[in-house]
Amino acid sequence: MYIRLQSEGTIGRLTLANRVVMPAMGVNLASPDGGVTEDIIAFYEARARGGAGLIISEITRIEGGAGISEPCQLAAYRPSDIGELQRLVDAVHKYETGIFIQLQHPGREASPAIAGERPVAPSPVANPLSGGGVPRELSLEECGALAQKFALSAQIAMAAGADGVELHGAHGYLINEFLSPAMNFRTDRYGGSFENRMRFLTEILAGIRKSCGPRFPVSVRINAEEALPGGIDLPEACRIAAVLEKAGADAINVSCYSQGCIEPGTYEEGWKKNMPSAVKKAVSIPVIAVCNIKSPAAAEALLEEGACDFVGVGRGHLADPEWCAKAFSGREDEIRTCIGCLGCFGEIVRAKRVRCAVNPVTGREREYASPARDGKERVVAIVGGGPAGIEAALVLKERGFSPVVFDRGERLGGTLNTADKGYGKEKITRYTDSLIRQAEKAGIETRLGTDASPETIRELDPCGVFVACGAEPLVPPIPGINEDLVCTAEDVLLGSEKLQGRVVVVGSGMTGLETAEMLAMDGCSVTMVEMLDELGAGVYPTVVQDVMGRIAQHDAVILTGHRLERVTPAGVELTRLSDGEKVAVNADRVVLAMGVVPRKAAADGFKAAFPNVRVIGDAYRGARILEATRDAHGKAFTFEP
Questions:
Q1: The domain that contains 178 carries what CATH number?
Q2: Which SS3 state, helix, strand or coil, does residue 523 take?
Q3: Orientation of helix 274-282 relative to helix 234-247, angle to 10°
Q4: What stretch of H or E contains 83?
């Protein structure tokens, strides 16, 4: 199965066990000074143990100060960094996995709050996409000195035993800023013509070859396209790749600089395969493709079509470190599928450690490495078979307990079976399927179509009860809320309410956004009402932009900064919070998507009936999948009968 994906591949003189590359992703697990911690070792070792052919480390700083991207990112610019990186390399090398250290300088993308100084760049031009400040222009001498620092960092990585390095020349960082005519406005030897814009990168490659020799593999990550006026397009990217091959690069890692750089869940797998395919035709060295790949079948198809030589599987490895092992052993239906929520990126941009909605162990591999095996087959009742309930059941089963899951539905998954009804939500269905398969393989007893009560559970004589009964839609106690024209977003998503005409959707969290999107695409005239000043608070901005891009095609009316006051037979009455003005909106139907509240009464009933109760997931606190699975895993891991 997956013959091409499992086949050996070479980058330079390095032979890799398979064609799966885990590309660089920031994890924020290093020490503040860039040192290697036990946590970052455990993170990468789990992915090596899981069978990845090549791991490319997170962005690794080549200098301090303006060269720092994240508060706790790796470093490779001091002699002391050799021993630190060696610990990480040795951990990965215990398995048949290679590791490249990705060398990066943020350029104008650096945060002064993190770096402690003003960012630097080829030109003093702010990034129009991020809205950051104006960077300081590098002098001619500084350009040459930074190129030498990249070469020194490569030498440090090689001394630490790394199999190679990757130069990050994409995503708006420093090397990319030199390459792109949309970011580089210099008139000296580092700007202007194509050859001059290439000079900084070719000098880096020359320096690496001089310090590390011809046998040390070097990959370069580039943008195939840029969402900037006058930026790099695909033909120019091919031209860049060809020059890099002549300059000594051993592989090209093809990405892009746009919303598609970090795709939300609605994007199809392989949607940008034309980019690596074009670059591959321009070079004879291997091409690595990052194309939003979640499944082994999609990865195999890319190789079969000749779109690339290696397939980058990034967030798929955050979701499941055993992605390769499961794919290659016929267990792909057990792979925890990345759902594209971008919660992982949301954590990093807030300077937190990496986390994953579908894998609560991500970033905490060391902490959860050795669960107590003290279950002794004692029964634990779990009320609710949503993501929290299943997560708790899996952990308890691993610990040797006998969990019994009760769920009123006919299929495990809970609210996931509602969340997968919006546009392009097939990945959530696949995630639900994988949870069900994991529960089946673990031998977890499930009782579907059962509305559990203290009486039914008491018959099991459980040593503990986990209440994962979820939450219910928030329905505010305002005048007219019980009018026949009112329904919930859940009613719409599940199809129990078929709406037409003018519809007001109140609330713009993820559920509200997806409900408004569904209604707009079904031909309704939609007005979105949000009390806050922005839509999608708490949702990663790229996801909001993705959904709103489709809603905008249907001329929806957006009313942010408005509070729902009452529902009338003619529609709704709002208060504009900026000035207190009353605003009436005529509507045929009103949809409430104002969040959820835990089913407290149900939870309290179980707490009163049993001495050892844990309330988890939405039943504990209404939030996202990320919080639900994390809460469930932690409480099941620490459960004491």
A1: 3.20.20.70
A2: coil
A3: 40
A4: helix 80-92
